[in-house]
């Protein structure tokens, strides 16, 4: 990167399956107060504000008009990125790298429990001419992908089930997680089929919560904060938006974003130079597919790495120590933020019972969920 | 850092119901019109063919996804392809469970980029990635220029 960007404050609210006592604005306000408190800044001292959100998930048209007040950003420059939090974070880094901004606040939240017709909102993201008339649940896209990925790589349904067991177990050590559980591989394999080979427990459940991060230029970060967490590289890519034209077996977007982010961060051997990863596991197979696309496992090897404990909390390369979306909950466009929060805690040595030993450098990766082929990668460090 | 609501129903505290009825008319465009018109009248799938790089694409486009050149050539590719992936889908778009799961598949065509996602009607014991499947179309007088002019794909 032209110049590293520092994280000088971070706050979350949540995560929980529901949040009836707080409105979405109150979730954000609660996270913002924590983040600004850590940064030692009043919002009036922050140069610009970015939110990541999607109108249909919020239930508003032009939702970005409803974001300034809860961030302390009325009469300030604010804009919305309709994408995952990590993409908004990348925009924040670019703004700082222009030299015109010193501090930027980036926000995302999920109030998924407000959405009464979530299946229909997801189906509305399918192509209206070529896919939507089939009137099927949007999760069929995950079923098609999973079938193809397993068939082409030799990874198995049982290995996918092991991802669920591992992540839900990790999340039992995470006080912010909503879906921790002690499950067996058979529990997952015997759960209800959703869109084969995808089963109920392979699917992460929705969660509510908010995240706010304060970014600063390298010089400002050093002035504001004793131990900033550094963003060494960040990138995002889109594959083919047309499901029928896409490489459904592999996550091209993750492979390309990883290559770019590693090049920015000066990383040539990610498995050796990184110490853990928080990656998208919205569906169990996505963790395996992403591990291979990110070059953290060879083709067909991700399931074995899971099975043999390499990706466990006490393994050589822990993956999703937070519990991931399977354990913490799926927070839609805030997903990358939920994972970034875990990465920051780990790199600050503040992750408590799930602390990864000697964690100095890591990777955070997001995907925008079905039916998309878009994802982002960020490389973070504490030195 | 966490909050854990002790109330687990949104409706136990203050809330307000809202809905957004939304209706659209999605234009098919040049390539979409050619595709559906040919399917209606000639019982054929049409792919676009790039004159610069030769890539054929279904569904057809007026530009090439590979080299971004404009496309004016459209070629018939028949109705038979190969099953690239499939899934038994248990729920509909509203989250209502089907009485019996529907099989959906991605069908790809030899030498053509892209494919068609549609219902697959094959005996369970014969269902296999890589099998040859062909489109069964509605009778001509019942077609209306949409993807439902295809009833399903079946073994050939």
- CATH architecture group name of the largest domain in chain A: 3-Layer(aba) Sandwich
CATH-assigned homologous superfamily of chain B: Nucleic acid-binding proteins
CATH 4th-level superfamily of the largest domain in chain A:
Thiolase/Chalcone synthase
- Indicate the structural class of chain B: mainly beta
Oligomer type = heterodimer
The general outline of chain A is globular
| Contiguous helical run count of chain B | 1
Arrangement of strands in the largest sheet of chain A = 3-2-4-7-1-8-11-10-9
**What's the CATH C level of chain B?**
Mainly Beta
Secondary structural class of chain A: alpha/beta
Secondary structure: elements and pairs:
The complex is a heterodimer of chains A (383) and B (156).
Chain A: E1 5-16, H1 24-39, E2 48-52, H2 55-58, E3 78-81, H3 85-97, E4 103-111, H4 118-123, H5 140-153, H6 157-171, H7 185-189, E5 193-195, E6 198-199, E7 208-217, H8 218-224, E8 229-238, H9 252-265, H10 270-273, E9 276-278, H11 284-293, H12 302-307, H13 324-328, H14 335-347, E10 361-367, E11 374-381
Parallel strand pairs in A: 2-3, 2-4, 9-10
Antiparallel strand pairs in A: 1-7, 1-8, 4-7, 5-6, 8-11, 10-11
Chain B: H1 29-42, E1 46-49, E2 56-58, E3 73-76, E4 80-91, E5 97-108, E6 113-114, E7 116-121, E8 132-137, E9 150-155
What does this protein structure show overall?
The complex is a heterodimer of chains A (about 375) and B (about 160). Chain A is an alpha/beta fold and about 375 residues long. Chain A folds into two domains: about 5-115 and about 205-230, 3-Layer(aba) Sandwich (Peroxisomal Thiolase, Chain A, domain 1); about 125-205 and about 230-380, Peroxisomal Thiolase, Chain A, domain 1. Chain A has helices at about 25-40, 55-60, 85-95, 120-125, 140-155, 155-170, 185-190, 220-225, 250-265, 270-275, 285-295, 300-305, 325-330, 335-345, and strands spanning about 5-15, 50, 80, 105-110, 195, 200, 210-215, 230-240, 275-280, 360-365, 375-380. In chain A, the strands form two sheets. Chain A has a nine-stranded mixed beta sheet. A two-stranded antiparallel ribbon of chain A has the order 5-6. In chain A, helix 2 links the parallel strand 2 (about 50) and strand 3 (about 80). Chain A is globular, with a radius of gyration of 19 Å. The mean pLDDT of chain A is about 95. By secondary structure, chain B is mainly beta. Chain B has one domain: Nucleic acid-binding proteins (OB fold (Dihydrolipoamide Acetyltransferase, E2P), Beta Barrel), CATH 2.40.50. Chain B is built from one helix and nine strands, in the order H-E-E-E-E-E-E-E-E-E. Chain B has one helix at about 30-40; strands spanning about 45-50, 55-60, 75, 80-90, 95-110, 115, 115-120, 130-135, 150-155. In chain B, the strands form two sheets. Chain B has a five-stranded mixed β-barrel. A four-stranded mixed beta sheet of chain B has the order 3-1-2-6, with helices on one face. The longest helix of chain B has 14 residues, at about 30-40. Chain B is extended and about 65 Å long. At the A-B interface, strand 1, helix 4, helix 5 and strand 5 of A face strand 4, strand 5, strand 6 and strand 7 of B.
């Amino acid at each position: 990167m032209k110049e590293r960007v520092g994280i000088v404050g971070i706050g979350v609210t949540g995560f929980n399956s529901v949040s009836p006592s707080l409105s979405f604005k109150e979730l954000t306000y609660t996270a913002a107060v924590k983040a600004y408190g850590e940064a030692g800044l009043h919002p009036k001292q922050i140069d610009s504000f970015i939110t990541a959100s999607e109108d249909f998930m919020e239930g508003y048209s032009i939702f970005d008009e409803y974001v300034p007040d809860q961030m302390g950003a009325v009469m300030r420059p604010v804009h919305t990125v309709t994408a995952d939090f990590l993409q908004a974070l990348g925009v924040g880094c670019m703004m700082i790298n222009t030299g015109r901004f010193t501090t930027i606040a980036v926000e995302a939240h999920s109030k998924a429990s407000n959405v009464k017709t979530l299946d229909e909102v997801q189906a509305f993201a399918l192509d209206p001419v070529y896919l939507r008339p089939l009137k099927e649940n949007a999760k069929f896209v995950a079923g098609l992908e999973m079938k193809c990925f397993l068939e082409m790589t030799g990874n198995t349904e049982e290995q996918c089930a092991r991802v669920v067991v591992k992540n839900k177990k990790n999340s039992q050590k995470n006080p912010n997680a909503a879906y921790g559980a002690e499950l067996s591989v058979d529990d997952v394999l015997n759960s209800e089929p959703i869109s084969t080979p995808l089963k109920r427990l392979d699917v992460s459940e929705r969660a509510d919560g908010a995240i706010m991060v304060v970014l600063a230029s390298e010089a400002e970060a050093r002035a504001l904060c004793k131990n900033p967490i550094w963003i060494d590289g960040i990138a995002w890519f889109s594959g083919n938006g047309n499901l029928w034209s896409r490489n459904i077996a592999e996550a091209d977007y993750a492979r390309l974003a990883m290559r770019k982010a590693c090049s920015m961060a000066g990383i040539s051997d990610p498995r050796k130079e990184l110490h853990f990863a928080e990656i998208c596991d919205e569906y169990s197979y996505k963790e395996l597919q992403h591990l291979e696309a990110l070059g953290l496992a060879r083709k067909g090897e991700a399931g074995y790495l899971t099975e043999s404990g390499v990706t466990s909390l006490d393994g050589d390369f822990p993956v999703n120590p937070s519990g991931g979306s399977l354990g913490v909950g799926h927070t839609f466009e805030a997903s990358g933020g939920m994972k970034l929060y875990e990465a920051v805690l780990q790199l600050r040595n503040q992750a408590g019972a799930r602390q990864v030993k000697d964690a100095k450098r890591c990777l955070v990766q997001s995907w925008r969920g079905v039916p998309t082929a878009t994802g982002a990668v960020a490389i973070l460090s504490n030195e | 850092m966490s909050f854990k609501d002790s109330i687990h129903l949104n409706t136990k505290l203050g809330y307000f119901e809202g809905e957004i009825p939304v209706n659209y008319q999605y234009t098919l465009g040049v390539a979409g019109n050619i595709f559906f018109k040919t399917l209606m009248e000639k019982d054929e799938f049409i792919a676009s063919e790039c004159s610069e790089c030769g890539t054929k694409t279904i569904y057809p486009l007026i530009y090439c996804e590979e080299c971004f050149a404009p496309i004016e050539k459209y070629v018939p590719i028949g109705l038979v392809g190969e099953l690239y992936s499939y899934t038994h889908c248990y729920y509909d778009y509203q989250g209502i469970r089907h009485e019996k799961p529907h099989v959906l598949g991605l069908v790809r065509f030899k030498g053509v980029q892209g494919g068609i996602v549609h219902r697959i009607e094959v005996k369970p014991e014969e269902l296999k990635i890589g099998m040859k499947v062909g489109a069964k179309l509605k009778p001509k007088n019942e077609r209306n220029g949409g993807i439902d002019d295809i009833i399903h794909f079946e073994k050939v």
